[in-house]
Design brief:
221 residues; mainly alpha; two-stranded antiparallel sheet; 4 strands
């Protein structure tokens, strides 16, 4: 259970460390290695959806997101992000992701979302579909999807494949490429938290690149 303070404008924080060295060839089989995670996550995301519906009505009538439900959905997002970071969402580590809904501080990436003591009862009616619509268009370009019966890879997938090819020949993951991939994923995760009703802070249309979450205004020199 995490309570973040001091970052009211950044309730969603994503930090990651690029592991070195990375295997030149493991990326070719990671799609097989993460199948057990995909099976578990399939059921967890069913639970995530059900919890989000319950949370919707709780916020609508009380202005609060029940803490136990919030922690569960945060756990699902953390689990999903660790799997993405290991596999084709970033390829930032060769450390197999744990089967865990917890924080896992020893894993090379972390996702934290500040628990909101109060949420707008009015915004809950429109933020997950109407207000978030412009972001859905943007992150659709990042993530890709099915078009005309074919899977179209998004920008994140394309960049990770480029990184994998570079690693195959040079054994190095270009830092500038890693920073860009993290920035794109950070954008996606901020939108996911907002759409899942976990924050009222509107996601910025901003690409904050790098493995470390940018400092809040109160930390700026």
């Amino acid at each position: 259970m995490t309570t973040l303070t001091g970052f009211p404008d950044r309730p969603v924080r994503v930090d990651a460390v690029l592991d070195t060295p990375l295997s030149r060839w493991l990326w070719l089989v990671k799609w097989i290695l993460v199948i057990p995670h995909y099976v578990v996550l399939f059921f967890l995301w069913i639970g995530f959806t059900a919890v989000s519906v319950i949370a919707f009505f709780s916020i609508l009538f009380t202005g609060r997101y029940p803490r136990t439900l919030f922690d569960f959905n945060l756990g699902v997002l953390r689990w999903s992000w660790r799997v993405a970071y290991y596999s084709y969402g970033a390829l930032g580590t060769d450390r197999y992701p744990p089967f865990s809904l917890g924080e896992e501080p020893d894993y090379p990436t972390r996702l934290d979302i500040a628990y909101p003591e109060h949420l707008s009862r009015g915004l809950v009616l429109v933020k997950w579909w109407l207000l978030a619509l412009p972001h859905y268009i943007v992150i659709g370009f990042f993530l890709g999807g099915f078009r005309e019966g074919w899977w179209s890879g998004g920008l994140i997938a394309v960049l990770t494949v480029i990184a994998a090819v570079i690693m195959t020949f040079t054994e190095k993951y270009p830092k500038s490429l890693f920073d860009l991939v993290l920035g794109l994923n950070r954008w996606v995760l901020r939108v996911a938290a907002y759409a899942a009703l976990m924050t009222d802070t509107y996601p910025p249309f901003r690409l904050d690149m790098g493995g470390t979450e940018p400092a809040g205004p109160e930390q700026q020199p």
